[in-house]
Amino acid sequence: MTDSMSNTMNPMILLCVFVGGLLLPGMQKVSGMHVYTEVEALNGTDVKLRCIFSSRYPVTFVSVIWKFKPLHGRPETVMYYKVRPYPPPEGRFRNQVVWSGDVMKKDASITLLQVSQTFSGTYTCTVRNPPDVHGRDGEVVLRVANKTTSFIPHDLHLDIIWK
User: Fold this and answer.
1) What's its membrane topology (predicted)?
2) Is residue 83 domain-shared with residue 99, that is, in the same domain?
């Protein structure tokens, strides 16, 4: 390569490195989340709803909100987590949900106790770990079946806890 060619390329390379250094850190802040999307359960069983998240930052200020949208009716909060779990003091999920995750292992799962058909609907898991706050929310659709013959597991990762 000639000296005149290398002199004209150096500013271009420097500009690319500079612009890349500005853009790349912003693109790396997006967190990912994987949630198992469709679950069937038997009436009266305990069902674990998994919410596994990822973040490039240490898990220090993580918060989790699980919400529920029934087939008919208004949405409601199922569980809130900030340092420790806060189950709902009233409503359909009072004494019906327990925290079964471990945020240090990037697991924000919950377990619904003795589900009934009123638990059928869409559950949303929202995880935030500042400054990693731009991740997608995960959704799980739960269908509760009354009869054993209609139970077809759609998700091999579903944990059902039999009593």
Assistant:
1) Single-pass type I membrane protein
2) yes
Q: Are residues 63 and 3 in the same domain?
A: no
Per-residue pLDDT reduced to its tens digit, 73-116: 899 999 999 999 999 999 999 999 999 999 999 999 999 999 99
Model-wide pTM > 0.85: no
> What is the residue-wise DSSP string for 35-95?
E--EEEEETT-EEEE-EEEE-SS-SSS-EEEEEEEESSS--EEEEEEESEEE--SSSTTTT
Q: Are 137 and 37 spatial neighbours (Cβ–Cβ below 8 Å)? A: no
Strand pairing of 121-128 and 138-145? antiparallel
CATH number at residue 99: 2.60.40.10
Q: How many structural domains comprise the chain?
A: 2
What gap in Å lies between CA 4 and CA 18, rounded to an integer? 22
